[in-house]
Amino acid sequence: MGENPRNSRIMQAAQARSTNKAPKPSRSTGLGRVIIAVYGILALAASVRAVYQIMSKFDEAPIAYSLSLFSGLVYILATFSLSSAKRGAWLVSLWAVAVELAGVIVVGILSLTHPEDFAHPSVWSGFGEGYGYVPLVLPIVGMWWLYRNRNERHA
Questions:
Q1: What is the distance between the alpha carbons of residues 114 and 23, in angstroms, rounded to a whole number?
Q2: Exposure check for the chain: N or C terminus, fewer CB within 10 A?
């Protein structure tokens, strides 16, 4: 019995498709570019604000100002790792975005339950209300984006 010609064409097409895979687009294209830009803006805003506050009035709210500096550093790390195509950048991005999400949730809850410790707001106080809740929404979007753009090694 001969081979079914239809099955052989399907197999040939499947083999051709698997050998001619086009490279996946970079994480820094399309929506990724917007996400990276927002992270960059938050990195600049949080870092500059924190450095100013720490240098001028650290004794007024040391916890809040230290958290603002920490969040600025997390945003800087996320910005550079999200825009990098280097090996390991995806994993660094995942950790940075996860730390940001945990920080926003924990600090958001603590700023509501212990307002005396947050005499002045930090970036993550009130779940990022001072920044239009962008610090709360951005890591969720970032996690989704990272999940959609994981490579086969991280799948």
A1: 50
A2: N
SS3 of residue 122 by DSSP:
coil
pTM for the whole thing? 0.78
Q: What does each of the 155 residues of the chain score in pLDDT, given as a tens digit?
A: 555 555 666 666 666 555 555 455 566 668 889 999 999 999 999 999 999 999 999 998 888 899 999 999 999 999 999 999 888 999 999 999 999 999 999 999 999 998 888 778 888 999 999 899 999 999 999 999 999 887 745 44
**137-153 core/surface letters (b: 16 or more CB in 10 A; e: else):** ebbeebbebbeebeeee
Block residue for tokens 């779940």 = 127
